Amino acid sequence: MKVKKVVTMSERAVLVCGGAGFIGSNFVRFLLRRGARPVVVLDKLTYAGNRISLPSDSSLEFVRGDIADSALVSDLLRSYQPRWLVNLAAETHVDRSIESPEPFLQTNVVGTFRLLESVRKWLAQAGAAGRDFRFLQVSTDEVYGSLPQSERAAEGCAYAPRSPYAASKAAADHFVAAYAVTYGLPILLTNCSNNFGPYQYPEKLIPLMILSALEGRELPVYGDGLYVRDWLYVEDHCEALAAVLERGELGSRYNIGAGNELTNLAVVQKICEAVERMLPAAKNPALQRAGAQQYGELIRFVEDRPGHDRRYALDSSKIRRELGWRPRHDFETALQRTVAWYSANRSWCAQVLAGRYDLRRLGLLRVSAPE
Ligand code: NAD
Fold it and tell me: Tens-digit pLDDT profile for the chain (371 aa)?
C-alpha cells in the first residue's frame, strides 16, 4: 500500500485567495481553529467580499488585491513562502454572469491563469522554500452541466458548462489541470455542490429567502421550482478542502457533495418551516404587514432563469473512499442553524448589502423589440 505523507496545518503559511467571501471566510476560521499560522488572505473585496466576514486574529494577515496582479502575488509568494495556496477568488453568481459575463472571464479565467503563472515562476526559483507546496483550485459541480434524473457526475465526466459562470470555472479548471501536466505544477482540484451557511452573500437562494421571509417580503421561486441542487453545509466543505490539502494525491480532482438533492421549491418550503420554528408567523409583525398568516404564503413563482440547468448531482464516492471524508451535518439541522445565524446577524447583512445590492432580481434577458 502506498503511504501518503500527511501534511499538518501549522508548518507554513496558508495563502487563501478570496478569503473574505462566503466559503473563504468560513475556511479561514476553520484554518485558524486548526492551528494554521499564519493565514494570509488575498482578496479584492468585490461586492461579495467583506472584511467584516473575517475574524480579528493576530495570526490572520489581510491583503487587499487582485489575483490577476502578478507583481503582488509574486511578492506574497516570495514573502510568505506558503505551504498551501487555496484559490477561492471568483465571481460566483450565475444571474450576474448572465447580465454581465466579462468580470467572470477576467477573474475566473484570466485571474486563475495569472495565479498559476505566478506560482510557476516562483516555484522555478524557490528551491527548498517551495518544497511540498500545493495549489488547490476550488471549483463547482456546475461545470458538468445539467444531468438527467438517474445520473451523477464522477470525476472523469466531461465538462459541459451551460452558463457564463460555469464556462468561466470550466476554463479555469482546464488551465489548472493543464499546468499540472505541462509544467508539473503541484495542483489539486475540487468540484463542489451548492454550499450554504453563515456569511453567504444574501443574493444566493438560501440567505435571500431567509431574510425575505423574516422581513415579510415575497419569496421568488424561478420557473416551476423543480430545479434540483445538491446542498452541502459550508463547514463540511471546509473539512473536505482540508482533507484534500492534507491527503489528496497531487494532480487529482475530487468531487465534494453531500447527496442532499432537493428541488429549489422544497428548499424554500424547508426554509419557511425553519423560520416558523424560530419566529412563528403569528408573532412576526412584518408578516402581518404583508397580509400573510404563514411564511409559505410569501412564495411566488417568477420568470425562469435563462438556460436554467435542471439538475446537478455529484458522485463523491472518491473523496469518501480515498480520503475518508464524509459530511457531518444533516441538511435540516444545518439549515435551522443557518436560519438562526442570519436572524442573529442582521447587522452583518445590512452592512454587506448597503449600497451594493438591493435584493432586486438579476439575470433576466431583456431583448428590446425591433422598432
Ligand atoms: P463569494 O462570491 O462569496 O466570494 C468570492 C470572493 O472572491 C470574494 O471575497 C471576492 O471579493 C473575491 N474576489 C473576487 N474577484 C477577485 C479577484 N480578482 N481577486 C481577489 N479576490 C477576488 O464566493 P463563494 O461562494 O465563497 O465561492 C468561493 C469559490 O468556491 C468560488 O471559486 C466558487 O466558484 C466555488 N464554489 C462555490 C460554491 C457555492 O455554493 N458557494 C459551490 C461550489 C464551488
Answer: 344 444 455 579 999 999 999 999 999 999 999 999 999 999 999 999 999 999 999 999 999 999 999 999 999 999 999 999 999 999 999 999 999 999 999 999 999 999 999 999 999 999 999 999 999 999 999 999 999 988 999 999 999 999 999 999 999 999 999 999 999 999 999 999 999 999 999 999 999 999 999 999 999 999 999 999 999 999 999 999 999 999 999 999 999 999 999 999 999 999 999 999 999 999 999 999 999 999 999 999 998 889 888 999 999 999 999 999 999 999 999 999 999 999 999 999 999 999 888 877 788 776 544 44
45 lines ligand 1 (CB under 6 A): yes
Q: Is the CB of 54 under 6 A from ligand 1?
A: no
Distance 88 CA to ligand 1 centre (A): 5
Sign of CA dihedral 103, 226, 352, 215: positive
Q: Quick check: CB of 111 below 6 Å from ligand 1?
A: yes
Q: What is the DSSP letter of 206?
A: H
- Reduced to 3 states (helix: H, G, I; strand: E, B; else coil), residue 337 is helix
* C-alpha 255 chain-centroid distance: 14
Of 91, 95, 142, 309, the active-site residue reads 142
List the catalytic residue out of 43, 91, 141, 203: 141
Q: Which residues touch 314 (CB under 8 Å, ≥6 apart)?
A: 141, 144, 152, 153, 191, 192, 193, 230, 255, 256, 257
H/E segment holding residue 87? strand 84-87
Is ligand 1 within 6 A of the CB of residue 87? no
Is residue 19 in contact with ligand 1, taking CB distance under 6 Å?
A: no
C-alpha count within 13 angstroms, C-beta hemisphere, residue 234? 19
Ligand 1, atom 10: nearest CA belongs to which residue?
49
* 142 annotated active-site: yes
Q: Please choose from 23, 54, 189 the residue to mutate so as to test ligand 1's pocket, defined by most ligand atoms within 8 A of CB.
A: 23
249 an active-site residue? Answer: no
CB 41 within 8 A of CB 61: yes
Q: What is the pTM of this model?
A: 0.95
Quick check: is 141 catalytic?
yes
- Cβ–ligand 1 contact at 43 (below 6 Å): yes
